[in-house]
Amino acid sequence: MKSSILLLLVILSLALCSCSLNDNGALNSVNPNEDNVSAVADVSNSKENQSANSSENEQKTSVNNGNNESLATESEDIGSSSEILIPDDKTIREPAENGYGYVPKSQKVDKSYFNDTLFVGDSITNMFSMFNDAYGLFDDAKFLCSIGLSYGNSLWSMENENNVFPTYRGDKILIEDAVAEMNVKKVYILLGMNDIGVYGIDRSIENMKELVSRILAKSPDVKIYIQSVTPIIRGKERDDLNNAFIAEFNDKLCKACEENKLYFIDICQAMSDSEGFLLDDYCSDIDYMGMHPSYNGCKVWLEYIMTHTK
User: Fold this and answer.
1) 78 lies in a domain?
2) 81 located within any domain
3) N or C: which end of the chain has fewer CB within 10 A?
């Protein structure tokens, strides 16, 4: 019964192409040329073809769009409450001397730690939100996510008719405005899957910094956690979006966090196997896109951020 309810929730949510908040919301860095830079990654075309397509067509073929039922596929033990064990950190990273950047393993916090927290993201985070709604992964965390959202298109103006901004209280909203309105203390951002194949790694990092700058301009006291992009399962990588690019992006993302006094949460290492692929058990769309988290994947995600805090 729970599985059926969850499936319905996910399908309805993704059909709307956005995740509305529970009355609270946010985020945004560089000012890209909206006319010449595409919004989201196109899973069916090469990078060259993406450049030739209009942003409207690219939006429709986003890396976060597609068959909603495939996206909602879940393991039979979806309601399992079995304990999830997080292995020791695999990635060889060291916290920066200034205390920012990579966040190492720490004492586990209670779920109430996230009561003043907003999670911002694309369809990856949208799945996290859906499982939270169905199974109560958090006590009172808030979510602001939209299918196809990226660091790049989060910088667009609201006037751009092809924008994919998330909704808050029924209306589309800029991420930085939502953060300010919701008055949260912590913001966890997971974007990038829709950036890498479109903007390239270096420009995507600059877009991240601009997004953060816009958030801090309106909410200077908020603590920002940048989460790594999660991996793709074996056999579903593309020429312009693969685990090698994701690893390079995450390395530069971590470095940018050190330099800009942000916290970097490397959830990728908790969800990948020894070769860097997303573990099948943590993937909800194995036969489709091979990148969206399953319930077990979300439990590992939750456990990781609860044991990696500052």
Assistant:
1) no
2) no
3) N
